[in-house]
Amino acid sequence: MSLSHTIVWLDHHNAEIIDFSFDDKHVLHVHHEGGDRKLHHKVNTIGSGKVLEDRSFYNDIVTAMDDAHKVLITGPGNAKLTLKKHIDKYQPSLAKRVVGVETLDHPSVGELLAYARRFFKGVDQMAGDID
Hints:
With 131 residues, this protein is α/β, with parallel strands linked by helices. The chain has a single domain, classed as eRF1 domain 2 (Nucleotidyltransferase, domain 5, 2-Layer Sandwich), CATH 3.30.420.60. It has four helices and five strands. The protein has helices at residues 55-64, 79-90, 92-95, 109-127; strands at 5-10, 14-20, 25-31, 70-75, 98-103. It has a five-stranded mixed beta sheet, with helices on both faces. It starts with a strand and ends with a helix.
């Protein structure tokens, strides 16, 4: 049985999205549009000084993985958690297909695909999707 699996690796500037079955793959790169997103808190100013969620960046990622059967979200920092919250809030049908959120540093596309194949093999076996 060939299922569409998707692994997403992202930080606050870039995302690598790999759609694959166990015999082929499709890689898509999504980049944040705009300049440096670092904000610094200044004394006597209103606001937290934190970077605000960039909905268009997360929407582009969601669009790229909308037809996935199962999704694994990965990345080194908090962006992966922000993406998961974005999906939960704005895409509840996709949220049901997210099977994991994992911390990964900065793997190559090959390393990311190998990790995803191992991860989804276990998930599929537990779900009874493969023998």
